[in-house]
Amino acid sequence: MPLAAESSAVYIQNTAPGFISTPGRAPTSVTVHPVALFSILDHYLRRTESQERVIGTLLGKRSDNGEVEVRSSFAVLHSETEEQVAVDMDYLKTMYDLHHKVNPKEVIVGWYSTGSNLNTYSALIHNFYSQEAAPHQVVHLAVNTGIVEGEKAGVKAYVGSPVGVYPKPENCVFAPIPCELRFHDAERSGLDLLTTTSVALNSTTPHPVTDLEVLEQSLKSVAEMLDRVLSYVQSVLAGEVKGDAAVGRYLMDRLGASTEDLEKGGFNSSLQVRNHEARMISSVAHLYSLQDTLMVSYLASLVRSQAEVSARLALVTST
Amino acid sequence: MAAATSMAAALAASLPAPSSAPAPAAPTYEAIPASMSKVIDLEGEIPLNSVQLDGLVVSKIIKHSRDAQGSTTHGLVLGIDLDGTLEVSNSFPMPNHSPDDDDKSAKGITRYQASMLRSLKDVQADDSIVGFYQAMTLGSFFNQTLIETQAIHQEKLRHGGVVIVHDMSQTARGNASFRAFRLTRAFLDALKRNNFSATSLIDHRLTFSSILEELPVKIRTNALLSSFLGTLTEPSAPSVAGGHPSAASSSAALPPSFSTLNLGTASVARNLEHIIEAVDAYKTEEGNLAYLHRQIAREKQKADAYVNKRKEENAARVAQGLAPLPEENVNRLFKIPPEPSRLESMLLLGRIDAYSKALAETSSTGLVKMYAAKTNSGV
């Protein structure tokens, strides 16, 4: 899942022989966990008036194939003026130690800043973080929060490589590398919750909702999609809209599997019989699992009422 | 080279500057005198009636719960109370402490907590603790530690604080679940007296369902997060033309998901096992209670017999004109064990109830999904 609009930039592999002595490989791609992203946004929201951008540390894991996994992030104090840039090192050390206590597997993999301007200060900070994470290379995430008009919100990842005959900390080429949003499947529903919240009125939703309500929502949206496809197909058939071949292929690919059986059944009577048998078997299986589910449901309510009765009886017995 | 070193020197020289500079805002954190605190604290008098969770907290808790699976996951939530709503804006995980080196680790945790709060304050984040969170599986979160921690919090924190529980198994099934609780007044009263005998339970009308009271939870995303999520879910320019159907992945960073429609009922077996375990534990606990009760009854019977015998003897002696023997303290002679605490069995019942509730919910959605699948296949 790419995090920003496709750019025409070519992702350059920065292998600078003799320059950087990196064990393992240089970062080739970055994956970002939503928590890190949301922390950055929260930090940006809480900046002081004088701050134009905020920076912070990215924590995560490096894998052998050059992929950097950003799993969390924390804010770091810094100040930028016309003449100089300063990063609070003590603060960074303290915070890193604290995070390390809870999650020993996560190490410093890079730093983030908001806004998408890369300047000399960025190069200096990058140099500073490279020293922190040495001997590994660090990545830089430029998070565009999308508040500047005309710029789209998104995240870009860079690795820095020194440039010039003599390497200087303030000279640095930021080479873009691919960046993706990644999270575990089990965490998906949390994101769904937030996305439904973000479009809701006042950006708040009441909670908790029951499983049935969530299921109802999903079924409704599936039904809506089917309706949309159906109306599109019908309008194509009626000749109102010119059919898009690509869409047709997608539909064929999706729905082909289930219609195939029907066609075969229609053309071939022996197959029809077999088809019928298969349906019988499936309906029997359905019946069995229906019985099982009903039994489980019955059991659940039985246990619940027993527990409730038992709790009430405990109050009565010794009077 | 010279320029480089001077730049680096300038960088190095400026680094400790922010920490060493005296913060002008420091004196404003003067403690409010105790006599005045009631007057100044207007919000303290408005009772809490709901909890609002920020999107950041939601994702932080989910990540922590998943990372630390197996061990008990807990952490602190930070925020502020405003007009009856507890706005939770941040959270941080707590390190797991082993029960071995209790004293040392407890100190370490206190230090960790203080240090974390100070650091968060430095970057303008909320730094007042309003409760804690805990991960659970299959809806069951009743245990002694949770209740003890909450009891401590309820004494120390404003409004008593809340405990936010997060159900990992339900989240994995596609419905992220967060609930907020606090202890009821009756339970807290019983806990203070440390008395969970049958009579105390009756006095306080305590069952497992009246240990905790639930507060309604609202989820909120701030404007920045909302707009960012909007960008993520919005599909980028349709580049379908010419694309092969097999590569038909949506181009949005967050395509819609339908994981709730999965027919999978894998968790049912585990759920049933949990119920059986809890019922077994309850049975053992009840056995213990019954044993203790019998012992108490036996001791009481002995004591009564002794008292009666003494009374008869005394009556006989009085009839014979002798001085009656002194009535000895029965309690000293017979050790009647104190009435056993029913807290554990109550919590176990609560656990059984929670597991079966989760089971009922799974089976009810399962039924709906099965009928949906049946209609589909019966075309």
Task: Spell out the key features of this protein.
heterodimer, A: alpha/beta, two-stranded antiparallel ribbon, about 20% strand, extended, B: 8-stranded mixed beta sheet, 8 strands, about 15% strand, disordered N terminus
Description:
Chain A is α/β, with parallel strands linked by helices and 319 residues long. Chain A has 7 helices and 11 strands. Chain A has helices at 34-45, 89-102, 120-133, 188-199, 211-237, 245-267, 269-316; strands spanning 29-32, 55-62, 67-76, 78-80, 85-87, 107-114, 139-144, 154-162, 172-177, 179-181, 204-207. In chain A, strand 2 and strand 3 (67-76) form a beta hairpin. The termini of chain A are far apart. An 8-stranded mixed β-sheet of chain B has the order 7-6-5-4-2-3-1-8. In chain B, helix 11 (266-320) runs antiparallel to helix 13. The radius of gyration of chain B is 30 Å and the shape is elongated. Residues 1-6, 11-29 and 237-251 of chain B have low confidence and may be disordered.
Tell me the strand order in the biggest sheet of chain B.
7-6-5-4-2-3-1-8
Average pLDDT score of chain B: 74
Judged by helices, strands and strand pairing, the structural class of chain B is alpha/beta
> What is the makeup of the main sheet of chain A?
8 strands, mixed
Structure classification of chain A: alpha/beta
Separate helix tally of chain A: 7
In total, how many beta strands of chain A?
11
Strand order of the largest sheet of chain A: 9-8-7-6-2-3-1-10
Ends apart, CA distance between termini of chain A: 65 Å
Most extensive interface, residues per chain?
Answer: A-B, 121 and 128 residues
State the major sheet of chain B: 8 strands, mixed
Helix segment count of chain B? 13
Organism (chain A): Rhodofomes roseus
Family (chain A): Belongs to the eIF-3 subunit F family.
Domain MPN (chain A): 30-164
Keywords (chain A): Cytoplasm, Initiation factor, Protein biosynthesis
